[in-house]
Protein: Dihydrolipoyl dehydrogenase
Amino acid sequence: MSDFQVLVIGAGPAGYVAAIRCAQLGFKTACVEKWIDPKGANVLGGTCLNVGCIPSKALLDSSHHFLHLQKHAADHGIAVDGLKLDVATMLARKDKIVQNLTSGIAGLFRKNKVTRLEGAARFVSANEVAITKADGSVETVRAENVIVATGSVPARLPIAPVDGELIVDSTGALSFASVPKRLGVIGAGAIGLELGSVWSRLGSEVTILEALPTFLAPVDRKIATAALKEFNKQGLTIHTGAKLAAAEVKGGEVHLSYEKDGTVQSLVVDKLVVAVGRKPYTEGLNLEGVGVQVDERGFVKVDSGRWTGVGGIYAVGDVIGGPMLAHKGSEEGIMVAERLAGQKTEMHYDVMPWVIYTWPEIAWVGKTEEELKAAGVAYKVGQFPFAASGRAMAHGDTSGMIRMLADKQTDRILGVHLFGISASELLGEAVLAMEFEASSEDLARTIHGHPTLSEGLHEVALAVDGRMIHA
Structure:
């Protein structure tokens, strides 16, 4: 039996980061992971690296290149003859990126002296975990502290059971062997929009059904409205207030019926992607057996320090709820590691960055205008269009805008919302500004390079005070 000071269960972004930080702080640390890749090998990285954030971004990038060459290269004086798509090569590139990153985590474990354990973990007691390996053998590990970081899995729709062929979840949508002529997507959240965008750019007729009446409800309304208009222009057909009633596989097709505006409508597609969110994954852990509580939705209950209230058991990432974001899980893992070391690390959820990797991208931090109105907070707002950005013009993409909200009395920045080229990268400056409780005047007085996309943040900060220069 092996003894450790910290055992981390799960090697996704929350788990592997927590394990590395614990090891850096001097704890004897192990991390156990049961993920098996299609080749039968145990791999690190969890959903994000294997079938989530990373492979989806690889396909988004590849599909963007294809679409650009097909429809926009001529604008740059570039003639492309004989353009063709090789889906197999595209998928192989995606897989290679995944392999490089997952093997990179293994290297980081070796560098930081994290013991890697392979198999499925199950609590025997609060400080004892049994690990069942692929060959059926069982190893028992003792640990003073255990960090549960088992993540989440795609949520299911009983009326659209995933068969892995015609009806798939987000994982299956990353590996279509060919471009489906007609693709249906259930759910117009980040996952549905990103996967729909990939296959739309490659030639699919994509229809997205969203049960909620509002498109991208958590997003600033002006941003969401502009995004919906742009996505429609790109060829994505998005129906809001469309509740799936039935999904039946017939003759190699998926026949759908859905309710919208009080009527039942039909849709036939070649493939259907079910992207209705994710749910916590705790299967086989025996949490209840050791007294760890979960809520009615299956999320592990924790306090502000991510302690479960049982022994030395903590939980971080998707499995405890809140924003299901890789960076959120990673920071929680670091916070727990540092608290175990006696530090007083905190998490600031009010400055959590959010990104949807469509083209253009949608990114935001802080409060929306609607939230401030509902809370009765007096605010000022500035808005800057990318159409007025010289760098955006040079790039050839001037869609979208930046919006900034600041407190009317103190001028403190309360929210920044972007829809446009490189929004995910521009967001970092806004997050940093808000972390330091900056005012719009602080950004307005900060010199930005010219010509850059980040000048847009300078301009929108000026706009908050009614003194924007370039629009």
User: Anything to note?
Assistant: The chain has twelve helices and 22 strands. Residues 167-276 form a domain with the FAD/NAD(P)-binding domain fold (CATH 3.50.50.60). The radius of gyration is 24 Å. The chain has a mean pLDDT of 97.
